[in-house]
Q: What sequence folds into this?
C-alpha cells in the first residue's frame, strides 16, 4: 500500500474527497478527516482500511497545519457554532498529530464543539487525557469491532454489554462532555 502525505505544497485541495480533508454537507458540522488508516480488519468494513487489506491501494495523511488552516477558512465562512467532527474511513486515533490538531481547532473562534469518532481500541487513560487537554469535547464510540486477538465469528463480536465495563474504566475520571454508544 502506498502512503501519501498531503501537504500545503502538494496543492491538493482538502474539500472534495471523502477519504481525507474536510467534508461540508451544508450544516454546522464539518467532518475533519486527517488520515484514513485503521488498526482493525473488520469483515464488514466498506473501505477495507485495516492492516491486512487486500484491496486498499493508497493511504492518506494530511499535514496538520494545512488541515487546520482549511478548517479555519471554512469555519469563518460558516460563522459561529461550528462542530468539528474528527472521523475517518478508518480509525482517526491513528493520526500521529491528533492532540495538536484538536488544539489548533480549539483556537478557531467559530468552532464551538470538537468531537471524535473512534472504535476505541487505541484509547488509553493517557491518550484520553491528552485529547481532553487539547480541547476535545466528546468521544463517539463505535462498538461494532471484533475482539482483536480472536478470529472473527458470530460468537465473539463485542456487544455493548461486553464492552461497556472496559470503556467506562477508560473514561472514568475524565471531564469529557460524554461518550456516546
A:
Amino acid at each position: 500500500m502506498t502512503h501519501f502525505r498531503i501537504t500545503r505544497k502538494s496543492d491538493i485541495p482538502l474539500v472534495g474527497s471523502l477519504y481525507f480533508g474536510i467534508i461540508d454537507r451544508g450544516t454546522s458540522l464539518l467532518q475533519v478527516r486527517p488520515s484514513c488508516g485503521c488498526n482493525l480488519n473488520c469483515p464488514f468494513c466498506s473501505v477495507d482500511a485495516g492492516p491486512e487489506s487486500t484491496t486498499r491501494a493508497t493511504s492518506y495523511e494530511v499535514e496538520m497545519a494545512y488541515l487546520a488552516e482549511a478548517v479555519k477558512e471554512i469555519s469563518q465562512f460558516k460563522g459561529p457554532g461550528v462542530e468539528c467532527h474528527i472521523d475517518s474511513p478508518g480509525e482517526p486515533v491513528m493520526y500521529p498529530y491528533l492532540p495538536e490538531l484538536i488544539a489548533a481547532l480549539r483556537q478557531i473562534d467559530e468552532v464551538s464543539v470538537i468531537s471524535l469518532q473512534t472504535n476505541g481500541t487505541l484509547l488509553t487513560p493517557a491518550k484520553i487525557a491528552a485529547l481532553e487537554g487539547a480541547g476535545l469535547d466528546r468521544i463517539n464510540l463505535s462498538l461494532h469491532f471484533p475482539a482483536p486477538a480472536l478470529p472473527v465469528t458470530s460468537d465473539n463480536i463485542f456487544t455493548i454489554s461486553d464492552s461497556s465495563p472496559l470503556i467506562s474504566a477508560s473514561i472514568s475520571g475524565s471531564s469529557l462532555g460524554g461518550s456516546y454508544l
Q: What stands out?
A: Residues 64-78 form the longest helix (15 residues). The chain is about 25% helix and 20% strand. Helices lie at 64-78, 98-106, 125-134, 160-171.
